TrEMBL record:
Species of the source: Serratia oryzae
Domain Chorismate mutase: 1-103
Pfam families named in the record: CM_2
GO molecular function, one term: chorismate mutase activity
Protein name: Chorismate mutase
PANTHER family documented for this protein: CHORISMATE MUTASE, SECRETED CHORISMATE MUTASE
């Protein structure tokens, strides 16, 4: 990547970071669901870019990088990194499922009049949202001690090609996240 492209990406990331953190700093569990929904809303662009460039949907080295970086970031935010990993994996699996479903639909009915955003640009947006999601989880667990409103979560996380089973896995893995000190205030709460 040349310097000009690097500078543009840095400016884009900085602008996105400040707009997402200023406008969408989560303070309650509904905000976390909204941020997850925003993150998943970018999967059509990811699927389209990968289709145009003949790239596989599954990118295991990228997934391993995201998982490791997310666990480390979670630790910095006061979360237990190991308890975050199943949630991060659930997000990545839901994202892949959405992409596969778009690609399958496009086999019989190609999308017309639409162009996906560049993958690097999308990954910057996803990265900013991922940080905001982890921040929101930490705040919710610290302030409220738990995620309890499954109905609101299921209603808020609503994307084309996202199935209820995908959302249920996200919800269940979200509820298993613990604070770094090992507290898990969700124990005994209804699912």
């Amino acid at each position: 990547m040349d310097r000009k492209t690097s500078a543009k990406l840095l400016l884009l990331w900085t602008g996105l970071f400040f707009s997402v953190t200023t406008l969408a700093m989560p303070t309650q569990s509904a905000d976390v669901a909204s941020l997850i929904n925003q993150r998943l809303s970018h999967m059509k662009d990811v699927a389209g870019y990968k289709a145009q460039h003949h790239l596989a949907i599954e990118d295991l080295p990228q997934e391993a990088k995201v998982l490791a970086n997310s666990a480390a970031e979670a630790e910095k935010l006061g979360l237990d990194g190991e308890s975050v990993k199943p949630f991060i994996q659930a997000q990545m699996d839901a994202a892949k499922a959405i992409q596969y479903r778009y690609r399958a639909d496009w086999l019989s009915s190609p999308e017309t009049g639409w162009q996906p955003a560049p993958l690097e640009q999308i990954r910057v947006k996803i990265g900013v949202l991922s940080t905001a999601i982890l921040t929101g989880i930490s705040q919710t667990l610290t302030q409220d001690g738990q995620f309890t409103d499954r109905a609101a979560f299921m209603k808020t996380v609503e994307q084309a090609n996202l199935k209820d089973s995908d959302k249920e896995r996200l919800w269940q893995s979200l509820r298993q996240i613990m604070l770094k000190n090992g507290t898990h205030k969700n124990a005994g709460m209804s699912h």
